[in-house]
Amino acid sequence: MAMTSRPKRGVPEGLWMRCPQCKATIFRKEAESRFNVCPECNYHFYVPARDRIAQLLDEESFEEWFTDLRPTDPLEFKDRMPYAERLKAEQAKTGMLDAAVVGKGYIRGRPVIFGVTDFAFMAGSMGSVVGEKLTRAAEEATRLKLPLIFVSGSGGGARMQEGILSLMQMAKVSAALGRYDRAGGLYISILTNPTMGGVAASFALQGDITLAEPGALIGFAGKRTIWATVRLELPEGFQTSEFLLRHGFVDRIVHRKDLRTEVARIVDFCEH
Ligand SMILES: [Zn+2]
Q1: Residue 188 C-alpha to ligand 1 middle, in angstroms?
Q2: Are strands 187-191 and 209-212 parallel, antiparallel or unpaired?
Q3: Beta bridge partners of residue 116, listed in sequence order
Q4: DSSP 208
Q5: SS3 of residue 187 by DSSP
Q6: What is the pLDDT of residue 5?
Q7: Distance 249 CA to ligand 1 centre (A)
Q8: Letter string b/e over residues 210-221, b meaning 16 or more CB atoms within 10 A of that residue's CB
Q9: Cα(193)–Cα(20) distance, rounded to whole angstroms?
Q10: Which positions ≥6 away from 143 have C-beta within 8 Å?
Q11: pLDDT tens digits for range 148-186
Q12: 201 alpha carbon – ligand 1 mean position (Å)
């Protein structure tokens, strides 16, 4: 449950961008034409929710649901700035009301219920709106008997500014996924960089199939927090997709350009 106090990561402006992994200066258009992946080293850059939908779902197939849900500030919480003001600033910055988008779409012609969290909005943290949207998506998937796909881009975990109301979302969405599972539903969870805290501790790691993008940071508490709490030195790269694949936490690592085909294949395999 990391605080969202660091500077926001977004896609910087300009024709050129620097890859944080290989340090190469790359032409932005070229990275964009490769699904926002570094052409030199395959580093997977941040992708906004809208672009993710365009990359993964069939063109013009997405129907967004529950667009009227907006966050409130029942605790009148204040850290460096009042939560109500922070929400307004984040909404202005991202054009989103909160960090999740859900709805129905098609993946290579297969109908699916789809949800995605966006790191740009308060680090993709799960407050009441994110929890409610994902829960309703799981309930609709149950009712319509359709596969459920969630893409996590949530470095923020639970949203501390909503206190217990945020923590409750972990139980609520988990319960909805449990009912969906008992009804025989197929839930594919796609982990992207970063997936941490209360998001990793709930829906993101409850998939029937767990896919991860290469090099994604995935874990509960970060390295510094673990050191500060229990003085434990952790192995190099222990919270990466690759480490988690070796240890059975992740089923498959999939390059972003292959995700759509891979998800369609899994749906076919499981549904027939
Ligand atoms: Zn690179």
Answers
A1: 28
A2: parallel
A3: 101, 151
A4: S
A5: strand
A6: 45
A7: 26
A8: bbbbbbbbbbbb
A9: 13
A10: none
A11: 999 999 888 899 999 999 999 999 999 999 999 999 999
A12: 30
Nearest alpha-carbon partner for 204 in 150, 245, 241:
150
The whole model's pTM is what?
0.92
Euclidean distance between CA atoms 200 and 176, whole angstroms: 16
* Axis-axis angle for helices 49-56, 259-271 (nearest 10): 60
pLDDT tens across 84-134, in order?
A: 999 999 999 999 999 999 999 999 999 999 999 999 999 999 999 999 999
Residue 10 CA to ligand 1 center (angstroms) comes to 17
Distance (Å) from CA 216 to ligand 1 centroid: 14
What is the mean predicted confidence (pLDDT) over 51-70? 97
Q: How many whole angstroms from 110 Cα to the centroid of ligand 1?
A: 33
Query: And the tokens for 47?
Result: 């992708």
Residue 238 burial (CB count, 10 A): 12
Kindly give the distance from the C-alpha atom of residue 256 to the centroid of ligand 1, in angstroms, as a whole number: 15
Which of 146, 267, 145 has its CA nearest to residue 211? 267
Instruction: Find, among 200, 140, 135, the residue nearest to 174 by Cα.
Output: 135
The structure tokens listed for 188 are 């594919």
Q: How far is CA 32 from CA 20, 60, 78, 147, in A?
A: 16, 19, 37, 29
In the block, which residue shows the tokens 């109908």? 111
Q: Are 140 and 106 a contacting pair, CB within 8 Å?
A: no
